[in-house]
Design goal:
mainly alpha, zinc
């Protein structure tokens, strides 16, 4: 009975996550109703909280898939509680991605849960564990863009529409970047089990620098331009006008002058 109780507690949703979700809900309500005196503050809180929620779900997807694949230790590590403070690298997993959003409006993924791969047998299982995170971002993007491609925007306040568009942009960028076959990112984790032992050993030392390398490449103007052209194409295919996402980012950066220009203020 003690073991069963422990397992139930391992799966209990963390109050930290509930608090973040509550901030998202309240800020979303304030954005929708125009309750906030400064709409940009409400948009900032809504998008940031929703982004952190998506990061938690991303890591939960990795952990849950690992649990069903054979790693029974993920529960005792707190990974099934959705608590971002339980992650192996809370700074990389939560703080840095939020800073990247504030700096440049890029949904840059972070590294978080430690999976005991030795407990898992079968290359397909290893690949699925790595793929589970980006697929969660894809699902989150679908939810955010549903009102756009379903034509269900009648009556949706502009500020909320812009916030959803910007949040969708973050999810799409995170899904694409994290799917790159770069060491340290989930895209490489998908193909790694299928590589020879020698190749894996040669690539392993570069894994800690993969995310930094991607970030550095995005600072190159030509790469940045092509990347966001791809993002605009994807968002356009999902029914989102690039201007809506731009307006969402302008509102998000409430500390800048004329950030609410899209609202006609």
């Amino acid at each position: 009975m003690t073991t069963a109780a422990t397992r139930r507690s391992d799966r209990r949703i963390s109050p930290v996550f509930v608090g973040i979700a509550a901030v998202m809900g309240v800020a979303g309500w304030a954005t929708w109703t125009g309750f906030a005196e400064q709409p940009g503050v409400a948009v900032f809180l809504f998008v940031t909280a929703a982004w952190v929620v998506s990061l938690c779900l991303h890591e939960y997807a990795h952990a849950r898939t690992a649990l069903h694949s054979g790693d029974i230790t993920v529960g005792t590590k707190g990974y099934l509680s959705l608590n971002p403070l339980a992650y192996t690298h809370a700074l990389l997993s939560i703080v840095l991605p939020v800073i990247f959003v504030i700096m440049g409006g890029i949904g840059l993924p972070g590294g978080a849960v430690f999976i005991e791969r030795g407990r898992i047998h079968g290359r397909w299982k290893h690949s699925l564990i790595s793929a589970a995170g980006p697929l969660t971002n894809v699902l989150f993007a679908v939810v955010c863009t549903a009102p756009f491609w379903l034509g269900a925007l009648d009556g949706v306040p502009p500020a909320f529409r812009y916030a959803l568009a910007f949040l969708a942009l973050l999810q799409v960028t995170a899904a694409i970047l994290n799917s790159l076959p770069v060491p340290g990112l989930d895209g490489y984790g998908v193909i790694e089990p299928w590589l020879s032992y020698g190749v894996r050993r040669q690539v392993e030392p570069f894994a800690p620098f993969g995310l930094l390398a991607v970030f550095a490449l995005l600072w190159i103007p030509s790469v940045n331009r092509e990347f966001f052209h791809l993002i605009d194409t994807v968002l356009g295919g999902l029914g989102i006008d690039g201007r809506d996402a731009d307006c969402g980012q302008w509102l998000y950066r409430f500390w800048e002058p004329d950030n609410d220009v899209c609202l006609g203020s």
